[in-house]
Amino acid sequence: MPADAARYLRPTGVERAFGRVLAALVRFGLVRGHFWVLEVRGRRSGRTISLPVDVLEMAGRRFLVSARGETNWVRNARSAGEVALVRAGRRERCAVREVGAAERPAILKAYLDRFAAEVQRFFPVAKGSPAAAFRDLAPRYPVFELLPPGT
């Protein structure tokens, strides 16, 4: 793993507060669109951690991308092997499979192209860049495929 693969871009206090408000609005169905609330059990505390996420649907598969890098939710999802997605009072449990770095460039490109308004600032390449532009960046952005529970 390259030295910069373990980077993490810490959210500011304003970003954390906005995330909590957005998560509450999504949870109750007051914000529509592509947002979900990700719930994952803490690997040390056992407490459920919740945050808003963008779920990418691509070629009949669904993915979670960590634009901030090696976050706590990433480490917790790896440890738990499952997460829950919540929106408008509906909860969906999912198993997670981490996608290898070699598979990530096309997923990262689709993610940035779809959600650039929210995540462009986390990527050193522009929306619309070819998938090859993400090859060297792929180890820095964890990606999980969402699967049916028990998979």
**Lateral arrangement of strands in the main beta sheet:** 1-2-3-6-5-4
Spans of at least 5 consecutive residues whose pLDDT stays below 50 are: 1-5
Question: Could you please say which CATH topology applies here?
Answer: Pnp Oxidase, Chain A
Head-to-tail CA distance between termini: 27 Å
CATH-wise, what's the superfamily?
Answer: Electron Transport, Fmn-binding Protein, Chain A
Element pattern in H and E: HEEEHEEHE
Please, what is the average pLDDT? 91
The total count of strands amounts to: 6
CATH architecture label? Roll
Q: What's the structural domain tally?
A: 1
Could you say which overall geometry the principal axes of the C-alpha atoms support? globular
Mind describing the biggest β-sheet?
6 strands, antiparallel, barrel
Rg is: 15 Å
Task: Report the top-level CATH class.
Answer: Mainly Beta
Note the total helix count: 3
Instruction: Assess the beta-strand content as a share of residues.
Output: 25-35%
Helix/strand structural class: alpha+beta
| Helix fraction by DSSP (H/I, runs of at least 4) | 25-40%
Report what the structure shows.
- The chain is 26% helix and 28% strand.
- It has helices at 13-27, 72-80, 104-119, and strands spanning 35-41, 48-58, 61-65, 82-87, 90-98, 143-147.
- It has a six-stranded antiparallel barrel with strand order 1-2-3-6-5-4.
- It is α+β, with helices and mostly antiparallel strands.
- Strand 2 (48-58) and strand 3 form a beta hairpin.
- It has a single domain (12-147), classed as Electron Transport, Fmn-binding Protein, Chain A (Pnp Oxidase, Chain A, Roll).
- Residues 1-5 have low confidence and may be disordered.
- It is globular and about 40 Å long.
- The protein is built from three helices and six strands.
